[in-house]
Design brief:
With about 575 residues, the protein is mainly alpha-helical. The protein has a domain of about 80 residues. The chain contains 23 helices and no strands. The longest helix has about 120 residues. The N and C termini lie far apart (about 145 Å).
């Protein structure tokens, strides 16, 4: 025993080294990749795993590299791949919703928007599956999810198996019999399905649900091509896995039955018979087979028997009815009897005996079928009403959510509008303040300039007054000496403040003392121009002599004007 151990250990050690070396090579290559290359590598749809240990031997070193490189998108991609293996490997399964919630938290942490929507999808459907989320809430979520995916672009969800995600949503709407929304979602899913080894199941499920919607709406010209496509693909199914072979065989039979049923509904019995025969040949099983296969054969027989009866092939119909009776007996023993399962069977038997002319047996089987048919119709009516109520509740809940969301958006808009208005008002107030400040500064500057100009102009007048005084004195001196100068006499008698001077002077004066002249005119409308000029010069605090010189009059004239103004205005 010890010798065998000595022999085994080196071999086991070599195998461990080989596995470790392979992991290191993969990890090193993964480290050298860009983020895009890592994502493409992780999301490779052709990769498959034999067992949990093989997957974990690949997963752990890849995750370590992504963490060391700080590549959050690759980290989420690896976590999503781990999540996807939960059904294949039991050891990866956690508590209810544990993996889904962990995936959602990772998507939020790494800010992967598409991944967040995908993780939320699994969280919501998981809650609904475990009856932790009502149908109406899942209904509302599906509508919102579809809109979010559409806004981002469905192509951006390819790596997350977008066809499967949309199939989940479309199937839920189908089960609620909301065929309009189900068809919209499933037709979108159809664009992303491929009948590949990994995608075959989803491809068939999507095609079959679309076909079933058109079939229930009696749009056979749209439904039959979908069933034929399923037959075409499943006929070529050469997968070596027994489970996949059985899957293809089952769906080949189901599609054949569906086509036969639709052709019969159109009155095309001979063509329907061909498909019914082909479907039955695929689904026929030994009587000792599993209940699943016997149920499929039993359902197929009802379509085939109805076809044979319509074609008046009574012998074939009789043999098939006996086969159906044998299967019905076995199923009732193996399973809990289904109350409405045999309605079609009894109806076919009644039709068979009616065509044979055995009306007693026809009536007897008809009596078996009638109460069952009536009960089935009542149950179907109740079920239809229940589905309608569920849809109405779901739609009402969705509208309430939209209303709440609209109110939130309105509140947000009002808040934002209030902020914008406050900012605008603040901006306008600040702008107005700056503008007024600028105007005040400009007005002050203009006033200062006008004062300076008025002072300069007044000074100029004073200088002219002094000049006139000097000329007068010179003239008096010449007169005493007996000399006369006509020029000097004329100059001294001229008015310094001419009309042109007055106009210029008034313009400057009104800049410094606005409204002064107009106020005097308003209060004392009978003022003369000479009196008005006197008031202006008095406002400038000029002396009587300066006024006289400026106006070209004597000091006495100014004094008389002053006395007259006192009497006039007090």
């Amino acid at each position: 025993m010890k010798l065998s151990h000595l022999f085994i250990y080196p071999i086991f050690f070599c195998l461990l080294q080989l596995v470790s070396a392979q992991s290191n090579v993969d990890a090193n290559a993964f480290r050298a990749m860009s983020t895009t290359e890592r994502l493409n590598y992780v999301y490779d749809p052709n990769r498959s795993w034999k067992d949990t240990s093989e997957f974990m031997a690949w997963y752990r070193p890849m995750l370590a590299v992504a963490e060391s490189e700080g590549d959050e998108k690759a980290m989420f991609a690896l976590l999503y791949e781990h999540f996807q293996q939960r059904h294949a490997f039991k050891s990866l399964k956690g508590n209810v919703g544990e993996l889904e919630s962990a995936l959602l938290e990772a998507a939020k942490e790494y800010d992967v928007k598409e991944g967040e929507i995908v993780a939320e999808h699994y969280v919501q459907f998981g809650k609904n599956h475990h009856q932790l989320l009502p149908n109406e809430q899942l209904y509302a979520y599906i509508l919102l999810e579809y809109e979010r995916m559409e806004d981002i672009g469905f192509d951006n969800f390819k790596q997350y198996d977008i066809a499967r995600l949309l199939y989940h949503s479309g199937r839920f709407m189908f089960q609620l019999e909301d065929y309009e929304k189900a068809l919209k979602i499933l037709l979108t899913a159809e664009k992303f399905t491929q009948p590949t080894e990994k995608g075959l199941q989803v491809w068939i499920f999507v095609k079959n649900h679309i076909q079933s919607i058109y079939q229930r709406q009696k749009q056979y010209d749209l439904s039959i091509p979908y069933a034929k496509k399923i037959i075409e693909v499943t006929t070529k199914c050469n997968n070596q896995k027994r489970s996949d072979t059985l899957f293809c065989k089952t769906w080949l039979g189901i599609a054949s039955v569906d086509i036969a049923s639709m052709l019969i509904g159109q009155g095309k019995y001979e063509e329907g018979e061909r498909y019914a025969n082909e479907g039955y040949a695929l689904l026929k099983s030994p009587l000792g087979a599993e209940a699943y296969w016997l149920r499929a054969e039993y359902d197929m027989l009802q379509v085939l028997i109805e076809t044979k009866l319509e074609l008046k092939k009574l012998d074939e119909a009789g043999a098939l009815l006996k086969r159906a009776a044998e299967i019905a007996s076995i199923l009732d023993q193996k399973e809990k009897p289904e109350y409405f399962k045999h309605v079609k069977f009894y109806q076919n038997y009644a039709r068979y005996y009616e065509l044979r002319g055995d009306y007693a047996e026809a009536v007897r089987y008809g009596n078996f079928a009638k109460p069952l048919q009536d009960s089935l119709e009542r149950r179907n009516d109740a079920r239809t009403l229940e589905k309608i109520q569920q849809r109405m509740a779901a739609e009402k809940y969705t509208e309430q959510l939209k209303l709440v969301e609209s109110e939130k958006q309105l509140q947000t808009m009002l808040r934002n509008a209030a902020i914008v208005i406050m900012l605008l008002m603040g901006g306008l107030a600040f702008g107005n303040y700056k503008r007024l400040q600028h105007k005040r500064k400009q007005a002050a500057a203009e006033l200062e300039a006008a004062r300076s100009e008025l002072a300069t102009f007044t000074q100029s007048l004073r200088e002219k007054s002094e000049l006139a005084e000097n000329l007068r004195l010179e003239l008096e001196k010449l007169s005493r000496s007996g000399e006369r100068s006509e020029y000097l006499e004329k100059l001294t008698q001229s008015t310094i403040l001419t009309d042109e001077d007055w106009t210029q002077f008034r313009s400057i004066f009104e800049k410094v003392h606005p409204n002064f002249i107009e106020t005097q005119k308003t209060q004392y409308p009978d003022l003369t121009q000479a009196e008005l000029r006197y008031l202006v010069l008095e406002k400038l605090q000029l002396t009587t002599h300066e006024m006289a010189n400026m106006l070209g009059v004597s000091d006495g004239t100014i004094r008389q004007t002053k006395m007259r103004m006192k009497r006039k205005i007090g």
